[in-house]
Specification:
With about 280 residues, the chain is mainly α. The protein folds into 3 domains: about 40 residues, no CATH class; about 130 residues, Orthogonal Bundle (Glutamyl-tRNA Synthetase, domain 2); about 90 residues, Arc Repressor Mutant, subunit A (Orthogonal Bundle). About 60% of the residues lie in helices and about 5% in strands. The protein contains 15 helices and 4 strands. Strand 1, helix 2 and strand 2 form a beta-alpha-beta unit. The chain is elongated.
Amino acid sequence: MDDHDMGVTHVIRGDDHLNNAARQKMIYDAMGWDVPVFAHIPLIHGPDGKKLSKRHGAAGVEEYREMGYPASAMRNYLVRLGWSHGDDEVFTDAQAKEWFDLDGIGKGAARLDFKKLDHVSGQHIAMAGADELILQVQDYLDATSQEKLTDAQVEGLSAALDFVRTGAKTLPQLIEKARFILASRPIERDEKAQAALDDVSRGILTELTPQLQTVSWNREELETILNALAEAHGIKFGKLAAPLRAALAGRAASPSVFDMMLVLGRDETIARLNEASQ
C-alpha cells in the first residue's frame, strides 16, 4: 500500500525477494492497481562464493573510503557487480547513467573481487583530472584523520602527479609514491634506504653535488651526468640509483630518479644530497 500511495513504478531488489513478487502481484490485482515493474538482481557473494558478510572484509562504504578507493571507482565497481554493458569494465558516472538498464542485469550471483576493484580503482586514478584527484587525496586524508596537504604540498603533488599516479591502485599507494615531494628535510629514511647510504655511496653523492650546481636542469643533461658518474666508478646506473633514491625520497622504491630531481628542483635536490652524504 505504501508503494502504491507513493506512486512507485519500479521495484528493484535482491533476488532473495523473488518469492514475494507473486504474492504481492495478487494484492495489486485484487485492488485493481497498476502492477509495478519487478526486477530482482543477483546478491553479492564473497570471494568464497558465499553470501557477502563482514568476514569477507569491509562492510560499509566508509571503510572502502578509508582504504583509499576513490568514490568514482567504487560507484563504477558497484554498478558493474551483476550488470554489464558489453565488455566495458571502466566507465564514468555519466556513462553509467546513460547505459544502465534492467536488461543488462545478469542472472547469476555477483562475486566481490578485490583484484578487479583494484584494477578499476587504478584506472579511475589514471584518468581523473588533476584538481579532482587532489581533492580525492585530501578527502582520503580527512577520512583517515591525517593532516591535509599544505598549499606547498599541493603544488608539489600537482607537479609530480603525472608519474606518481602511474600504477597506483589506491590513494595511499599514490601518496606513498609522492612521499618524496610531500616530505621535508630532514628526510626520514626506511631501513633499506638507510642501508643504501654506505661510505662509498656517500662519497659518490659528495662527488656528484658540485656537478649539479651548473648543469642545465633538464632530463637529458641529468642523464648524461649521472650515467657518466656511474661509468667512472665502474658501476651500473642501478647501483647509483639506490643511494639517490635514499637521499631524495628516503625509500628504496620510488619514482624515477630523474623525475624526482626535475620536480624537486636544483636547490632542493642538492640540499637532500648534501644531507644524505654527511
